[in-house]
Description:
This protein is of the alpha/beta class and 480 residues long. It has helices at 6-9, 31-44, 59-68, 86-96, 106-122, 139-149, 168-173, 179-182, 196-209, 220-230, 234-250, 258-268, 281-284, 290-308, 361-367, 370-387, 407-415, 447-455, 471-477, and strands at residues 48-52, 74-79, 126-131, 160-165, 185-190, 395-403, 424-431, 434-444, 467-470. Strand 3 (126-131), helix 6 (139-149) and strand 4 form a beta-alpha-beta unit.
Amino acid sequence: MSLLYLDHFGLTKPPFKITPDLDFFFSGGRRGDILSALLHVARHEEGIITVVAEVGSGKTLLSRLMISQLGAQVSTVYLANPCFSRDEILSAIARDLGLTDLPTSTEAKLSVLQQELLRRHANGQRVLLVVDEAHAMPPESLEEIRLLSNLETASHKLVNIMLFGQPELDVLLAQPRLRQVRDRVIHRFELQPLPPSEASAYIDHRLRAAGWKGGALFTPPAMAMLVKASAGRARRINLLADKSLLGAYAGGAMVVDVRHVKDALGELHADTPGLRSKPWMPWVRWGASSVALAVAMTVVALWFLEQRQLPVVQSAAPAAVAPVAPPSSPAPGAAKPAVELAERPSPPAVAPSTVPVKNLQAPISAALPAATDAFLQSYLARTQALLQTPDLDGYTIQLAALPRDASVAGYLNSAGHLVDSSMVFVQLSTYNGRNFVSVYYGHFGTTAQASTAMAGLPTALKTNKPIVRTWARIKQDQIL
């Protein structure tokens, strides 16, 4: 979010950040009622609770605010992005409870967890497991969560469980193999989009929380246009309001009017429901100003990259690809990567020919054209060098799992222009008898750092629904 207009409008902090900030919680749209219900459930009820809402509706902010208000009598385990295997998820929960040196078998881990939960229950403490982005959990891991819900004393469950997720969570739980999980859901809450009157109040609330002390900062027509375009989604409101304020600042205006909202919509048109412009529209705006020119070029670039990306499991026929330059660091003076890594150690600089990589040539050349093969070698070698690090730990972001065809090179080449290409890693993988190229980004010390970086990824890199993974697990899964 922009900081340029703060002094111009007399604001003390950015009012429309898309990262969760407890100071900006808005209780309208039944958010306050749901928060109260969740607090009650966390302190009294025993079972599994689901909270469902569309992307960008405020689920994460709601969960974190709830946790902050629970008090010391409730011990909370928070999984920000739980794309773990069934073994990893038990280990992650145990670590949050302060347990170390866990046994290797699942049964033994459950036994250790039960003893810790019994100890906390005897001390008068409740344990609450909060799982964010639960719709992305593997079914096996959800089943492991159900086993935790079985842990109990003669009269009480030892852990309460809350699953926060997008509507896909309902679809996931509807699978026949997860009926035992579904049967344990005792409450379901849903965050609805904000109606127009609440959306207007939401914008005013955030402006006041950021220090605005004047009258209406958005003209009525501008507010009506922004609210309609946002479809009541908090994140969309934040993006449009921020860009509208920036446009007003750039034009020296003290209020936001319709033309500023239109400019914001023009920049975000490729991802605005019901307001998609023609593919050539960004080019028309070039003559307006140098700022409009830069905006249009960015929108076109992101749109083009999104068209080239493939679904995670879609098969694609090989196509001819021209040789692509190997990945390189940004040139001096170039823009910084869109994601700033909290912790980004440089991988060992090892020439591909000197890295002892097993069975790389055969799998690639069997499915990929020669140009793509050569292009991938630098990525594969870098990844193998990292995976050979003794006691490798930390986390990364899996950007995509693409079919092994010529489109992989195009994806990597395009992604390298959006983030630091030196922190992009590639590994060959096989799932259900099908061959894929897994693409990872970054090396982080904690899940929180990885989750923050993932939230800040460019929109074009989120189309394949990236997830956080552990390097240790990836090392176990590598092709031998």
